[in-house]
Amino acid sequence: MTQPTDDLRIQQARPLLTPASLLEQLPLPEDLANNIAQHRRSVEAVLGGEDQRLLVIVGPCSVHDPNALADYAKQLSAASQSLSDALLVVLRVYFEKPRTVVGWKGLINDPGLDGSFQINQGLQLARKVLLDVAELGLPAATEFLDTTFGQYYTDLVSFGAIGARTVESQVHRELASGLSMPVGFKNGTTGDISVAIDAIRSARHSHVFPSLTKDGSAAVLESSGNPHGYLILRGGRDSGPNYDAASVSAAATALSAHDLPASVIVDASHGNSEKQHQRQAAVVSDLCDQIEQGQNALRGVMLESHLVEGNQSLTSPAELRYGQSITDACLSLDATVPLLQQMASAVRRARTAQ
């Protein structure tokens, strides 16, 4: 019997498939699991300074068309093979889109792009996309927004991110403490890096929190803490861009003050490009100069890139331009490859100068 004080604004409840059932439908083969484990170790080695390459996380702002992402991934894989001595290239595979007010929330929430919110289908698509990326031999990075979705595909992810809107969230810090891969924490939307450093510190500790098990049961989980948390500079509403040499050095000093690794990733998009996608090239040029000048704290770069430059409004799915973002504007892949080559050259010259 319905209570007069309960679920007054819930219009419908639909069954959600369990993580275990999805993993059974789309299992991770042992050879790919071993590759992903090695990708994670490689990311940790780069960000920890043991590997002198530069981590580059590159790809679309968000995935809305798995076929276009597959095309992008194949071309990126081919273009980056000759750069593997200097760069560790990780494909950006983001399924969830945080919204300031409302809007399309990402492939998992609305895979049909039509407001039908077929979340079970979205979870299946997300896992299939990550399996296809793993088959190509590319490491994958994704942002964790919903704290339960990860149970469906974290075994396929080599780098996780906590975004600027959620970096102060206790539940996301708890989530990060139990994730099996290295995690990047973005500075807050204002540009404040202290909230991200606090998140890194928090995630290094053990936490006890409610969540879901693989069989879909509610459970209290206890994490061991994640020692591989890293700061991502993405600019901010109040601070403006923070990719310059002084900002990177200040971030490294702030990390060291808390006995954290002085390892910084710079997001060339968002606040650092002042929401102008083409300005990512100028950010990369500045970062290359810093690398060649011996800035050892700069260990990673993030870029938003897709097959086609710019972005488009989400109207009818049938009318969308293939390979162009429906969220943030991106560089084209053709414009991205020269930036990868530029970063690889900077890393090589910096090594020679040492």
TrEMBL record:
Pathway: Metabolic intermediate biosynthesis; chorismate biosynthesis; chorismate from D-erythrose 4-phosphate and phosphoenolpyruvate: step 1/7. It comes from the Bacteria. The keyword Transferase applies. Residues 45-337 form the DAHP synthetase I/KDSA domain. The keyword Amino-acid biosynthesis applies. GO terms for molecular function: 3-deoxy-7-phosphoheptulonate synthase activity; identical protein binding. InterPro entries: Aldolase_TIM, DAHP1/KDSA, DAHP_synth_1. Keywords: Amino-acid biosynthesis, Aromatic amino acid biosynthesis, Transferase. One of its GO terms (biological process) is amino acid biosynthetic process. Its EC number is 2.5.1.54. It catalyses: D-erythrose 4-phosphate + phosphoenolpyruvate + H2O = 7-phospho-2-dehydro-3-deoxy-D-arabino-heptonate + phosphate. Stereospecific condensation of phosphoenolpyruvate (PEP) and D-erythrose-4-phosphate (E4P) giving rise to 3-deoxy-D-arabino-heptulosonate-7-phosphate (DAHP). PANTHER family: PHOSPHO-2-DEHYDRO-3-DEOXYHEPTONATE ALDOLASE DAHP SYNTHETASE (PTHR21225), PHOSPHO-2-DEHYDRO-3-DEOXYHEPTONATE ALDOLASE, TYROSINE-INHIBITED (PTHR21225:SF12). NCBIfam families: aroFGH, PRK12755.1, PRK12756.1. Belongs to the class-I DAHP synthase family. This is Phospho-2-dehydro-3-deoxyheptonate aldolase. It comes from Parahalioglobus pacificus.
